[in-house]
């Protein structure tokens, strides 16, 4: 293994460790990731802590794509941990893919409606319904958290890898929207870049992809922006020929395709 491969493997380990640590912190952070508390708060004239967490997810998309799903989200961490244990490939079911967008639009509707309908701007209460600052502070809440973890484990256990991210998570569309806005505005950001000439079509990137994307095809077409990509870096880490890299920067026009000039890229 050369030094570049070692560096990428180390970064991948860091991504997995941070993601799993985020899941282990769920007893503390459960309420701060709760879409229910956002909606309940807004209907009671309150902006709960979760409102700002998900706003941060939306804004992070401008510069970091869906990396928050890959690193910060505790439910992403749950799936990272399950995948380390099961190593089950993700089953692709095309007609399930619109589900998260439909759920996401319903959630967004419930968030936007009280904001628009209320005559008064809501009060900011970061610890709304979290009096002790820690989300799980009694047995009833521990049972509630266990039920959520069990429910969100069903999709990855049955369908493999990050099936909850791909098919169910309504909040992931905030990250997707942020990413799209960042790309439309041409902001510099974390992204993948490909060099088709270096690709030997081994298929390792496609097999490794956390979201079961057809990465080899994306590399061949040099179109690495994909709404489902969580920028985990698995593909770059397994590509021995350096055909795909993750870096921070802008995309530049190259022929009819949009990609980043490889001379500008710094592998991150
Ligand atoms: S791992 Fe690298 S060389 Fe292999 S198919 Fe993917 S991009 Fe091409
Ligand atoms: S394309 Fe690469 S960075 Fe994106 S989800 Fe798949 S493995 Fe991760």
From TrEMBL:
Keyword Lipid metabolism: no
Membrane-spanning segments: 20-39, 51-78, 99-119, 139-159
Superkingdom in the source lineage: Bacteria
Coiled coil: none
Matching InterPro entries: 4Fe4S_Fe-S-bd, Electron_Trans/Redox
Listed name of the protein: 4Fe-4S binding protein
GO cellular component terms listed in the entry, alphabetical order: plasma membrane
Keyword Amino-acid biosynthesis attached: no
Record-annotated 4Fe-4S ferredoxin-type domain positions: 190-221, 223-249
Pfam families recorded: Fer4_5, Fer4_9
Gene3D superfamilies in the record: 3.30.70.20
Record keywords, A-Z: 4Fe-4S, Electron transport, Iron, Iron-sulfur, Membrane, Metal-binding, Transmembrane, Transmembrane helix, Transport
UniProt GO molecular function: 4 iron, 4 sulfur cluster binding; metal ion binding
């Amino acid at each position: 293994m050369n030094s570049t491969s070692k560096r990428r493997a180390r970064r991948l380990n860091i991504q997995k460790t941070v993601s799993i640590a985020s899941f282990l912190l769920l007893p503390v952070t459960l309420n701060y990731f709760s879409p229910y508390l956002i909606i309940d708060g807004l209907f009671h004239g309150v902006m709960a802590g979760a409102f700002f967490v998900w706003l941060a997810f939306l804004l992070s998309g401008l510069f970091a794509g869906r990396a928050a799903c890959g690193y910060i989200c505790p439910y992403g961490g749950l799936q990272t941990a399950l995948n380390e244990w099961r190593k089950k490939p993700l089953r692709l079911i095309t007609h399930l893919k619109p589900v998260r967008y439909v759920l996401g639009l319903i959630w967004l509707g419930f968030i936007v409606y009280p904001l628009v309908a209320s005559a008064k701007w809501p009060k900011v209460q970061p610890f709304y319904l979290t009096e002790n600052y820690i989300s799980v502070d009694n047995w009833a809440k521990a049972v509630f958290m266990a039920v959520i973890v069990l429910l969100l484990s069903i999709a990855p256990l049955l369908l493999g890898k990050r099936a909850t991210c791909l098919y169910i998570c309504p909040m992931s569309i905030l990250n997707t929207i942020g990413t799209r806005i960042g790309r439309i505005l041409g902001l510099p950001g974390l992204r993948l870049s490909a060099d088709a000439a270096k690709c030997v079509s081994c298929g390792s990137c496609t097999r490794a992809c956390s979201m079961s994307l057809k990465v080899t095809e994306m590399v061949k077409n040099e179109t690495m922006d994909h709404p489902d990509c969580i920028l985990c870096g698995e593909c770059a880490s397994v590509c021995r020929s350096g055909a795909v890299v993750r870096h921070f920067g802008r995309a530049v026009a190259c022929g009819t395709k949009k990609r980043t000039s490889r001379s500008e890229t710094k592998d991150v």
